[in-house]
From TrEMBL:
Xref: PANTHER family: HYDROXYACYL-THIOESTER DEHYDRATASE TYPE 2, MITOCHONDRIAL (PTHR43437:SF3), HYDROXYACYL-THIOESTER DEHYDRATASE TYPE 2, MITOCHONDRIAL-RELATED (PTHR43437)
Pfam families found in the cross-reference section: MaoC_dehydratas
Name the record gives this protein: MaoC-like domain-containing protein
InterPro entries: HotDog_dom_sf, MaoC-like_dom, UPF0336/Enoyl-CoA_hydratase
Length: 302
């Protein structure tokens, strides 16, 4: 693995990812709002942190590599001005063309001061799966073998604030070359599958692919601005790429509430992205914290 480098996060970084993902959730973009929450300052988007991990994957493997799965938990917030590093560790391979990784985002500095406690440093952790020497046929074969259904959730509460099980939200978007260029510049992820249409076509795809963190950023938009809404905090996300999405293709992202836990202000949601032909592009599940919802504050103040 390539040695990770330190990156000090700025409000400009958060704002740039908000523009790319369309998630202007005030916990990321509004310092005044963020100071009134339990965070106390603006925090990084979960998928922005994922983009830093994706960039480290690209730097660490010289051969063509495509991220196809990622789970991430966010045990601690990552604040503006934190100095972070994306750390990867190889795990036993799940298949002949696949690589498994443990992934972590570590906060090594907070407001310029070193964090020496290893446990306190981890602000995001999970597992990734990469397809080495990737091409369209290999991705299709792996996707056919992967489960696509939602996990069975234990019983929860019928309502939480204005939320209820079964509520859903959708967003439609076609990513542009400018979106991918902006992502590559912000994250430092110059994976040729994303940035080189000629290379992607040589691997059997119809053109340059939408980066996995940008696809998942459609969930960030829905969760942080629509359902549950502004003030939502991401606790966990599981992602599995099931088919490639090319730049310019209309995509539909959906989130649906499957469980509510009123005692902990937690919401579980099924998440997916579908292509213009209805195929599943990206499938996953989310767990979010709704303690800071703007709508909840309005209800309680009424």
């Amino acid at each position: 693995m390539q040695t990770p480098s330190l990156r000090v996060l700025t409000q400009a970084d958060f704002n740039r990812f908000a523009a790319l993902s369309r998630d202007d959730n005030p916990i990321h973009c509004d310092p005044a709002f963020a100071t009134t929450t339990h965070f106390g300052a603006t925090v990084a988007h979960g998928m922005f942190l994922f983009s830093l991990l994706s960039a480290q994957m690209t730097r660490s493997f010289p051969q063509p590599m495509l991220p196809i799965a990622q789970s991430l938990m966010f045990p601690r917030p990552t604040f503006v001005a934190d100095g972070v590093a994306a750390v990867l560790a190889l795990q036993p391979s799940p298949g002949p063309q696949a690589i498994a990784l443990d992934t972590e985002v570590r906060c090594l500095q907070r407001r310029g001061e070193a964090l020496d406690d290893p446990a306190a440093q981890v602000t995001a952790h999970g597992q990734a799966e990469l397809l080495l020497d990737a091409d369209a046929a290999a991705l299709a074969a792996l996707a056919d073998a992967a489960p696509a259904g939602d996990s069975v959730q234990p019983a929860g509460d019928a309502t939480l604030y204005h939320l209820r099980v079964g509520q859903s939200a959708q967003a439609i978007r076609a990513f542009t070359d400018a979106d991918v260029s902006g992502y590559a510049a912000l994250a430092g992820d110059v994976n040729p599958f994303y940035t080189d249409a000629v290379f992607a076509r040589s691997r059997g795809f119809d053109g340059a692919l939408v980066p996995l963190p940008l696809l998942a950023g459609m969930f960030s938009d829905l969760l942080g601005t629509r359902l549950p809404g502004r003030g939502t905090g991401w606790m966990k996300q599981v992602l599995r790429l099931r088919s490639a999405a090319c730049v310019g293709e209309p995509l539909t992202a959906s989130v649906r509430i499957v469980r509510l836990r009123a005692d902990k202000a937690l919401v579980n949601l099924a998440t997916d992205v579908r292509g213009a032909d209805g195929r599943i592009v990206l499938h996953g599940e989310a767990l979010v914290l709704v303690r800071n919802l703007e709508d909840k504050r309005t209800e309680l103040a009424a």
